């Protein structure tokens, strides 16, 4: 499983992401698509925008998103079952 951490303090689990491949091995397109989907579920379709560019540094994907017009950096990392539940 993967966890999306938005730098304004919200953490969102993304079930299924990383279930077949480790999160750092996923493509940039897969990461940004998953982030967009998770944010739209949480904040609504019209309230979310996600930059198509994400970078992988130290096994963590990092990118930018906009929620209600405000820019926020985010990170996506792999989590282990039981540690964050």
How would you describe the overall organization of this protein?
The structure is a single chain. The protein is of the alpha+beta class. It has one domain. The chain contains one helix and five strands; from the N terminus they run E-E-H-E-E-E. The protein has one helix at 28-43; strands at residues 2-6, 11-14, 48-57, 60-67, 70-78. A five-stranded antiparallel sheet has the order 2-1-5-4-3, with helices on one face. Strand 4 (60-67) and strand 5 (70-78) form a beta hairpin. The chain is globular, with a radius of gyration of 12 Å. The relative contact order is 0.27. Mean pLDDT is 91; it is low at 81-85.
Which properties best describe this structure?
alpha+beta
Number of helices: 1
Strand order of the largest sheet: 2-1-5-4-3
Tally of extended strands? 5
Secondary-structure element pattern, one letter each = EEHEEE
Percent range for β-strand residues: 35-45%
What is the helix fraction of residues, given as a range? 10-25%
Tally of discrete structural domains:
1
Ranges where pLDDT stays below 50 over 5 or more residues in a row are 81-85
- Structural class call reads alpha+beta
Shape: globular
Mean pLDDT: 91
Question: Taking Cα atoms only, what radius of gyration do you get, to the nearest Å?
Answer: 12 Å
How does the major sheet shape up? 5 strands, antiparallel
What is the terminal separation in angstroms?
12 Å
